[in-house]
Task: inverse folding
């Protein structure tokens, strides 16, 4: 249900859904974009324009870029990630319903196909000097190299970090689901757990432990991942490993009385 909704939202935001046959082109675009740190866009800076720097390539930055007349500013985007990630479909990537490359789009492509001007710097902003309006950047491709750029207007859209709520052991043992690498890690962990449980000499207690998936958080991400996991078990694993599929257990943990607390309770 949520995956289909996510695709509708993707189209509503005029984002391209890349199918499997288009993925080699995407790979080449991402590779070309990451090989070089561009010092400037095709057009030089206009001294008569103010410089607008946007940190991050997430929802905030892409929304601004789509609605901004870049001809009025010298637009600079700074981020260690040179692509936009459509996060609502991340849970689908954990089980292979959607390939990771299908929800990634290079930020240069988003801007370029609209005929807008932008300078992109693949780096991490490590310091903001508000007094002098200067940013210190650490280049992603060379962490020992630092760059300083000036700005007139600054937009910080770098997103947030994981919230463990101070629970011991979470960072060491749990998987998060926020970035594309997180989805890949979960996918590998699921595959490895199933393969380990398939050996005949595995004790029943160890098998049940390996096949028990615990999802902490009853928000949209947790509920959708649990749903994707259920579909994987009932539609695929029941055919591939029927002897194991009936032992797979999915537990959803939520502190509040209801799941999806941000949605209407009637849902």
Result:
């Amino acid at each position: 249900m949520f995956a289909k909704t996510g695709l509708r939202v993707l189209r509503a935001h005029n984002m391209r859904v890349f199918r499997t046959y288009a993925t080699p082109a995407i790979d080449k675009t991402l590779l070309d974009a990451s090989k070089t740190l561009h010092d400037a866009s095709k057009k030089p800076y206009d001294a008569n324009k103010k410089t607008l720097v946007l940190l991050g390539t997430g929802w905030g930055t892409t929304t601004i870029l789509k609605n901004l007349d870049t001809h009025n500013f010298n637009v600079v985007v700074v981020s260690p990630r040179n692509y936009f990630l459509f996060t609502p479909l991340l849970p689908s990537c954990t089980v292979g319903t959607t390939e990771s490359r299908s929800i990634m789009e290079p930020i240069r492509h988003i801007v370029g196909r609209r005929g807008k001007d932008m300078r992109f710097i693949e780096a991490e902003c490590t310091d903001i000097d508000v007094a002098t309006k200067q940013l210190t950047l650490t280049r992603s491709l060379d962490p020992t190299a630092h760059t300083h750029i000036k700005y007139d207007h600054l937009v910080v859209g770098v997103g947030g970090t994981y919230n463990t709520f101070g629970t011991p052991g979470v960072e060491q043992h749990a998987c998060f689901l926020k970035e594309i690498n997180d989805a890949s890690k979960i996918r590998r962990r699921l595959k490895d757990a199933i393969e380990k449980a398939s050996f005949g000499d595995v004790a029943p207690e160890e098998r049940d432990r390996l096949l028990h998936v615990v999802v902490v958080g009853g928000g949209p991400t947790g509920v959708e991942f649990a749903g994707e996991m259920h579909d994987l078990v009932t539609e695929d694993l029941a055919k591939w490993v029927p002897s194991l599929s009936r032992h797979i257990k999915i537990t959803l943990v939520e502190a509040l009385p209801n799941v999806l607390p941000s949605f209407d309770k009637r849902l």
About this structure: Residues 45 and 102 are 34 Å apart (CA to CA). The first strand starts at residue 50 and ends at 55. The radius of gyration is 22 Å.
